[in-house]
Amino acid sequence: MNNLDIVAFSKCNEYDVDKLSDIIRSHFERIGATGEIFLGKKIAIKPNLVSAKDPSAVATTHPAVVEAVCRVLNEYGASDIMIAESPGGPYTALTLGHIYKVTGMAELSERTGLALNTDISYGKLSYPEAKKQKSFDVITPILEADVIINICKLKTHSLTGMSCAVKNLFGVVPGTLKVELHAVYGQLEDFSEMLVDLNLALMRDKTIISVCDGILSMEGNGPTHGIPVKTGVMFTSSSAFALDIAAEKYIEEEGETKYLDVGAKRLGINRFCTDDDLIREMGGHSLVRPDSKAGSLLRNLPNYFGGSLARFLEPKPKINKDKCIGCGKCMGFCPQKTIVIKKKKGKKLAKINNKNCIRCYCCQELCPSAAVDTVKNLLLRIIH
């Protein structure tokens, strides 16, 4: 794969299953994903169900897109299809049931008969050629699938800058084991290498078709506490990396996503070969960056003092005392165990020790009350 010809784009402004089915059908035909690929195969639908949020919050894949994809797969003769996801937090049957209900997947299953995974087992996926992580814990339905339909959501992301097809596959790692990987790969460059390792490991043994729900996207402090914005687009590709490069261009962030730099280099993809005429025809849509992304100053800052200067200037997560409910979820999900719950004036509040914080923003992503803000260094606030 040396170009982005395999990425299919379409404008779409509403979650109408009939219209979406037409788009998905045409996209599959354009990228060569026809009936032969799916017939008689075990298919796992991997949506983005990062947390228990209603589809209107735009943190999760809209069920209408999942329904449209399944309708097309059924037309192709596919019969063994299951939704399989491991959201943030504990990987338990109770958690899955709650996530499915709130995100609309349970209603979709009841109405259409689409199977939902309730098996909380997992196994090992080995990848000896990896640069960072040579084996991964992966949920069973993904391990057993012949084909993965990776239905991601177009969002900004406080750690990686953008969350799309490549980042969505991090969800195949069960529950809180994701936190362990955040702890091991605390620097963005290392995390990006690990994320590429995971994607390449899955690509080696399985057919992966990525579909991006960009009808309504998220900007600001994604992937869970950003702001919904209409971007009106659908993307489909047989390469998660190619899709994300096109999506990055569409949201006017070309060249900003570290995991795409890593993936393009390792796959031999031209990082900047997007069809500009097509993007102009589609009409790109700029998204507001997360507060955690300080812009060009830090990206271009020389590696003074072993990188400690850039580290000092980086934005940091901070607990919003007015919103914090003292539930302790941020403490439980923190890879560095750098958050504690303290009682102040009769109220429980979380407190972050910034000295040990690795800026992974798991606390912000998984906080149920949006109580984790991002605070920029005073110097950066003056400059910007």
Please outline the helices and strands.
Elements: E1 8-11, H1 17-30, H2 35-38, E2 42-47, H3 63-75, E3 80-83, H4 93-103, H5 105-112, E4 115-116, E5 122-126, E6 135-139, H6 140-144, E7 147-157, E8 161-163, H7 165-168, H8 177-184, H9 188-205, E9 207-219, E10 227-237, H10 240-250, H11 258-267, H12 276-282, H13 296-300, H14 308-313, E11 316-319, H15 329-333, E12 339-344, E13 347-352, H16 362-366, E14 372-375, H17 378-383
Parallel strand pairs: 2-3, 2-7, 3-4, 7-9
Antiparallel strand pairs: 1-10, 5-6, 7-8, 9-10, 11-14, 12-13
Helix pairs in contact: 1-3, 9-11
Walk me through the structure.
- The protein is α/β, with parallel strands linked by helices and 384 residues long.
- It has two domains: 8-282, LarA, N-terminal domain (Rossmann fold), CATH 3.40.50.11440; 296-383, Alpha-Beta Plaits (2-Layer Sandwich).
- It has 17 helices and 14 strands.
- Strands 1, 2, 3, 4, 7, 8, 9 and 10 form an eight-stranded mixed β-sheet that branches. A two-stranded antiparallel ribbon has the order 5-6. It has a two-stranded antiparallel ribbon with strand order 11-14.
- α1 packs across α3 (63-75) and α9 (188-205) crosses α11 (258-267).
- Residues 296-300 have low confidence and may be disordered.
